[in-house]
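User: Please run a holo structure prediction.
Assistant: Happy to. Please share the sequence and the ligand.
User: Here you go; the ligand is zinc ion.
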Amino acid sequence: MADLDACDACGNHVLEARRVLDATVHECELCGHLHGPAEVLELLELQREAEALGCSEFSFPLARFLDRLPGVKLLGDSGGNEKLGTMPYLAFELSDHRTWQLENLGQALRLMRGELERDWMIEFSFEYQLGFELRTRGDGKAGHTQVEIDAARRDLLRLWRRLQGYQTLSWWKRA
Ligand SMILES: [Zn+2]
């Protein structure tokens, strides 16, 4: 991709390089076409979709992933808010009233412990009936710094990326 000199879509020669998730993507300045690794392009497409829907670009990819898991229904998500100092979280319920997807998510968090910047947990929530929240430990209060919020946002994308791979492995429980 480093020697890319023309846009695949329109042939324009002005491509802007951007770093996303440890990869380089090139965006055509003329037509907006993106060139780069498929998984990173998917993320950028999801972030554009989030923007169009008025959702947080930080939590939307993982929120959509969770909502599409069998037996899981997304109840709400936040990518964090730097003005209020609140941390990102995702709220969901188990629509089939079984715990297998909690086991999958819990195992994923365990495997990713060394890779995540914040300490993530799945908390039973009283906000919603039989609800759960995926959030960082001790984030209940406002007043979190931009540095903390940014770290949690990077973790949301790491989780989104890893979970897609974990889903194909033998330990991942299927219905
Ligand atoms: Zn183009």
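The chain has a mean pLDDT of 91.
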